[in-house]
Amino acid sequence: MSRDDLSHLFPTADDATLHEASIAPIEQRGVLVDGEMRDWTGPVKNVFSPVMVRGRDGGLTQIRVGSYPSGDASAAITALDAAVAAYDSGRGAWPSMRVSERILAMQRFLAEMCARRAEVTRLIMWEIGKTLSDSEKEFDRTVDYVRQTIGALRNLDNANSRFEIVDGVIGLIRRTPIGVVLCMGPYNYPLNETFATLIPALIMGNCVVFTPPRHGVLLFEPLLELFRTTFPPGVLNFAYGDGAEIVPKLLETGKINVLTLIGSSRVADHLKKLHPRTNRLRAILGLDAKNAAIIMPDADIALAAKECLLGALSFNGQRCTALKMLLVHRDVADPFISALLAELTQLKIGMPWGPEVTLTPLPNIEKVSQMNALLDDAVTRGARILNPGGGLSVGTLFYPAVVYPVGPSMRLFREEQFGPIIPVLDFDDVDLALDYVATSEHGQQVSLFARDPDVIGRMSDALVNQVCRVNLNCQCQRGPDVFPFTGRKDAAEGTLSVTDALRSFSIRSMVAAKYTSPSREILNTVIEGRHSNFIHTDFIL
Question: DSSP strand E in 221-338: where?
Answer without folding.
Answer: 236-238, 258-262, 282-286, 291-295, 323-329
